[in-house]
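Async update (no meeting this week)

Hi team, since we skipped the sync, here's where things stand on the single-chain job. The sequence we agreed to prioritize is pasted below, unchanged from the tracker. I ran it this morning and attached the output directly underneath so nobody has to dig for it. Comments welcome in thread, and please keep replies under the output.
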Amino acid sequence: MGGRKYFESEIETMDRSNLEKLQMERLQWQLKRCYEESPFYRKRFMKAGIKPEDIRSLEEIVRIPPVTKEELREEQLAHPPFGRYTVAAPKEWAELHPSTGTTGVPVNTIWSHRDVKTIASWTARTMWNFGARPGDIVQNAFSYGLWVAGMSTHYATQELRCFVVPIGAAMTERQIDYLLNPGSTVLLCTPSYALHIGERLAQRGISPEDIPLRRGCFGGEGGTEVPATRKKIEEGLGIDAFDYYGLAEIGPTIASECEEKAGLHWVEDHILIEVIDPDTKEISRPGETGVLVMTHLTKEATPMIRYWSNDLAKLTTEKCACGRTHARSIGGILGRADDMIIYKGAKFYPIQVEKVVRSFTELSDEFHIELTTDERMGTDICTVVVEQMAERGDTEILASSLKKGLKEELMVTPEVDIKPLGSLERTTFKAKRLVDNRKK
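Output:
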């Protein structure tokens, strides 16, 4: 098993025309069952004036209006506790997994018993993509419990016949202990937590050469494909670092990088991926940035039909150098549509600030962007708050250089606040990079 190149060769290297034929068969099955079994979806179809049989090609799915997280919340409130978008019968339910609730009330999703097996299988594939193999010791520092990523990757390690350390996103000192003994070879966590573990490793005087860790895959937030962030993770832990993506409503782990590090590979036989222009709502051309919209092709319990993720990405169907034919998002997740900052006429995202901040060796890995209001003028103030590594350069010169770098990337110059090392909170979960303290 460990010597083969692909986890599921026939599926992963399938000719695009055959893959799209498979997608269409599964899409028709999904649309039909949602129309017949879900009042929530049937109402949406009727409002759009269509029936499942009217969708005769993958492209025609745009005729169905996207589903937003807010609409799912409203459905739950109107029809508690799970709304009417649950299709599988209760006797088929296996697990409840709500969204994290970082942007509002959590949205409940349910996995059926078959969903658990399907998700474990496709997650094992995403882990095989970046090099996890039988016999690896996988240190799973994704959160367990209600948050889905820890559970899906745990199940996948069983599929891969790995030895798993199910520590979750906690106990940083214990994380380091397990890197030493039993000597984990694969690490899974958020990129922010990977940077923090690397920071603590250095503070304890442990060289990356002293641990057998060889690679890690990091998701839950963007950043791994930012060159400066990837470099810091790889140097801090002495590994190859790969990007991972998922979201609770669709699947906790649905795209990962391969050895080529040439973008996120999607599990297209299970999920139909669209990139939609947020203004026109039309399908973006290959290579154009838009919002990811996703449709379950095989999910049983709570299938999503055109779920509007608010995550920005690009899409290409060009065959990867690794031989896989499924679509990729080169550059990973480029930001969230609702995180866009408009400052002095310029538009930018936190991930662009990250790209600049982490290119400075004089700065720590932590930062946040603070939005406030000028009381006298009534205008917005944007401040990038960072930490200076102890005794590394003149603060005024550093501030000037940082402002210059930010201006080149953002086309506008925010304020800069350089604080002493250790001033900003570290996180084991998703880092909160945007702090909006503006007066409404």
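Quick observations from my side:
The chain has two domains: 1-336, 340-436.
The chain is about 30% helix and 25% strand.
Reply here if anything looks off.
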